[in-house]
Hints:
By secondary structure, this protein is of the alpha+beta class. It folds into two domains: 15-169 and 232-318, Bira Bifunctional Protein, Domain 2 (BirA Bifunctional Protein, domain 2), CATH 3.30.930; 331-418, Rossmann fold (3-Layer(aba) Sandwich). The chain contains 16 helices and 16 strands. It has helices at 15-34, 48-54, 60-65, 84-93, 138-154, 170-184, 193-201, 212-218, 223-228, 234-249, 294-297, 314-318, 338-350, 365-374, 385-390, 411-418; strands spanning 38-39, 45-47, 68-70, 76-79, 103-112, 124-133, 160-166, 255-256, 268-276, 284-290, 307-313, 331-335, 355-357, 379-383, 392-397, 403-407. Helix 13 links the parallel strand 12 (331-335) and strand 13. Helix 1 (15-34) packs antiparallel against helix 5 (138-154).
Amino acid sequence: xxxxxxxxxxxxxxxxxxxxxxxxxxxxxxxxxxxxxxxxxxxxxxxxxxxxxxxxxxxxxxxxxxxxxxxxxxxxxxxxxxxxxxxxxxxxxxxxxxxxxxxxxxxxxxxxxxxxxxxxxxxxxxxxxxxxxxxxxxxxxxxxxxxxxxxxxxxxxxxxxxxxxxxxxxxxxxxxxxxxxxxxxxxxxxxxxxxxxxxxxxxxxxxxxxxxxxxxxxxxxxxxxxxxxxxxxxxxxxxxxxxxxxxxxxxxxxxxxxxxxxxxxxxxxxxxxxxxxxxxxxxxxxxxxxxxxxxxxxxxxxxxxxxxxxxxxxxxxxxxxxxxxxxxxxxxxxxxxxxxxxxxxxxxxxxxxxxxxxxxxxxxxxxxxxxxxxxxxxxxxxxxxxxxxxxxxxxxxxxxxxxxxxxxxxxxxxxxxxxxxxxxxx
Length: 426
């Protein structure tokens, strides 16, 4: 019989690896809680139309990468390739525009894109993201970026670079697109096939091309001078200048990058990425920006709702982190009597200790002690026949080999003294 494996581009998270995920998620949840950001969980699949309208029909995600299927009712459904569109849909559906502003939400969970698997990028991958609705100020942009920056620092990441750009308003983008077409029309034959296709459908995405020959072309004059020219309106320029001033005030270093456009169609004004020097070509660990028109575009009524946010890829992020020291057991219950052992392992767990035992009932006491050592337990509780008859328990400190005999009623208090929350083995 053929051995079954996980699908290409997916991977199992096994117990030796999961501790890092749980630690990172705990750090993130704590960071969000301290900033009064609340969790939202959206479905893993949505109507395909949501992503076509939200992400943009000319993006690579919609054109090449979505997992789309027809359900039993002949409706087109898509596994979510990103989560901003889903959160906006939930914002509209549940009337969050009536909530106190700003509405600050975060999410964690799997996303799905059909693309070539590579380091830190899988077909099922995980993202954590922030979305803030209802405030159209530079301060909101700056706070969003600052939360991402501080979160990455809380995880212990160094060698980070913040790249930032001003995309202007939709009318500014239209002028920029047309000007870019005019400057590149005579060089179109020297560009890659993707850029040639984007020239017609979404010319700003050409600047995001990873082909080195295309990037070299965009650095040439007069094209590079055109790209570096700020085409945004005075209001958008003033907004961006204030964002930069606030980042300066918070001592957050940044680099202005006129080539930064991001891969999605809905961004306006501020866009940014945070990259790591330790990731090679695929260096971005966080990216986002402002998207003031998306709520209206996805059915949010006649008024634009200002919004800003970002997302981080968990696999890529965790590849930069050192695994935390694994937590061993506090207590291992050693007994030749199953009811007694089960009673004690339950009591110790209820008291807040990490405890285990031998549920087979077949191992000799010596082998159970050896198992306790193998699992890294601090303390073993020995409950042989004589201890059960006398109402006593032998508490053995496995690191030193020392042991003490206590009345059964004294054991949990003694364990608290020995272990408490610091897990100190005597």
